[in-house]
Amino acid sequence: MPSSRLPLGAAPRLSLIALSILSLLAPLAARAQTAPAAQDAPTPAADAPQKKLLDEVVVTGERKKTFAPTTVRVGAFRDQDPLDVPLTNNVMPRDLLDAQGAQGLFDALKNAAGVTRSQVSGSTYDNISIRGILVENRGNYRLNGSLPVVNLIDIPLEDKEQVEVLKGASSMYYGMVPPSGIVNFVTKRAGPKPVTSLTTTFNDHGGMKAHVDIGRRFGEDDSMGVRFNAATSKEETGIDRYKGDRGMVSLAYDWRVSAAANLKVDLEHYRKNVSEQAAIQLPTAVGGVITLPRVPDNKTNLAADWARYDAEATNALVRGDFALNDNWVVSLETGRAKTARDRVYTTFRNYNNDTGAGTLNISVLKGQAYTNTNHRAEAIGRFDTAGLSHELTFGASYNRRESAGWASGAATAPQNLYAPVDVAPINPTLTQAGYPSEIRDRGVYVFDRVAIGDQWQVLAGLRKTDYRSLATNPSTPVTVYKADKVTPNFSVMWKPLKDVSVYGSVLRGLEETGTAPLNTSNAGQVLPPAVNKQAELGVKARLGAVLVQTALFQIDRPLATTINNVYQVGGETRYRGLEFSASGEIGRDFAVVASALVMDAEITRVGTANAAELGKTPENTPKNTLSLFGEYRLPMVPGLSLNAGVYHVGKRAVNNANQAWIDAYEVLSLGARYETTILGKAVNLQANLDNATDKNYWSTTGNSLLGVGAPRTLRVTAKVDF
Questions:
Q1: Which CATH class name applies to 89-185?
Q2: Which PANTHER family does the record match to this protein (predicted)?
Q3: 587 vs 670, higher pLDDT
Q4: What pTM value is reported for the model?
């Protein structure tokens, strides 16, 4: 439920729009500044800080380096202590991302239990699953807890302060999303200390990157702050026939308009143009069994270097918070995210497992574009009644997701899995293949956090959803799906000690059941909405400087599967698991991040057309995952740190019929960093070695595809603070 300490905002489109919104908000800010204070302020919730709902601007310029999260900034739990969140949450703070030299989404999330790659290998962007459930690329990724950004291009980490995952059903706050979890990106903001840094990174494959980060506060009493980030890179990963470039620029602005009004604006634009690694299609089943080929060398790319993935994205978000008095705050948000791409997508199929000879299917896709528009209005207040302390939230949200039509053409070429050859450029005739679609997801919600004495909290809420999706195709009737439903959420938390929480939660949510992938006959179709259910029982504790979490969960959700090459809803799946995580500092010199998941997932209901899937494990769902990363800060050499990490993912079924399994794998990472001062400037020198043993392994499956893990990569980084 919402914290008593509210964040300060978010961001729109371009600077002109930002200035327009500033002028519109100025009268409200002035009015809020003169709002009378309550005469008899009620006692706040038992665990809430004794202060006004609206805080000063939260700055992050001076921060203690730590792997332990202190706040969660996602959804209804913005700026809460993780101990007060009655769901499993994992936070990857900036220092952890820096220590690991994280370059992308999967690099950050590999520290969270149950996270795996899905379908694609990650050479262009990271498609991931959590607890075996696909993280929907247009609804489950959020900027500053609000704007749904489109994860069809690498989301930059250079301008992010932390990355966090709120696992499970999140429909109460976010509307129509699957219960895999919400991935939230928190942007850097200007702090009290000026920031000017230049970072350069080189890898052993010839890749290189430069990144500049500048932050300043200004104005009367430093009431305004600006954080600017920009990066450019030459992309080389060690994969054959892979090359390209990437760039990003972002601006985060905040303004403490008055003691009663705050404003935040975030703008970011990023692009990536690289060769896309080919996906490998599953062989045909014989007698209900698929025999997989041996894993090719991890540098193998069956596609040509001209098979480009050319994408760009622009995200804009504005948030304003206005204190009406000491106990009530109104928050307004608006934002827009747009991603466009042209793609030459290659799959390798119809091959001989022994010789490797097969066929490339080359699809040229032009003009794909996805736009998310998001608005939210919310009122949060505190009051006492009948001896109980309430923190009540009323809200309304509106999200519109639009997809433009696109043109495509196809061609084939011979190729060999074990001895790839160059493929000559093609220029197929393009015809209309994808057609415009629109999704509208509106909702109103109310939830209350009730403190009963000093140790108990009850959290209860309802959301009413009004959903409509529309797909246009000239060859078939217009497809429309609608949903109008009320879903409840209920949690109970007991805090026997200040740093220990025990909770139980029951949640219901609506979700879209998926979007048909490109290799199905109904590619791009959004499937009908359905209800998912979740129950979770957990314990959280802060042991010194280490946050420990463990939880038992069960999720029941609709099953999306491919039947006769048509992607459709075909039953129901149940996910049961036990999850554990620990992160923080052990003593003065050692820091650790650990996670583990043991899970039993089963297809519990099917239709007549997919009866063979009953009782099977959902595709790409491991029975166990484990990650362990530690850093030792050598006391005998001030500034020097050594680190290592091991990451395990259990075996996974290649499809819902369990006709084959990819093997479990473990990868090792090593690193070192040294902080010193040269000519009066702070300098950080760092080296990271990923996949240190240069292991060949299947890193991903799902959607009838296979992907290979990345080769061993050494990155050397130098950062100078001016």
A1: mainly beta
A2: FCUA PROTEIN, FERRICHROME IRON RECEPTOR-RELATED
A3: 670
A4: 0.89
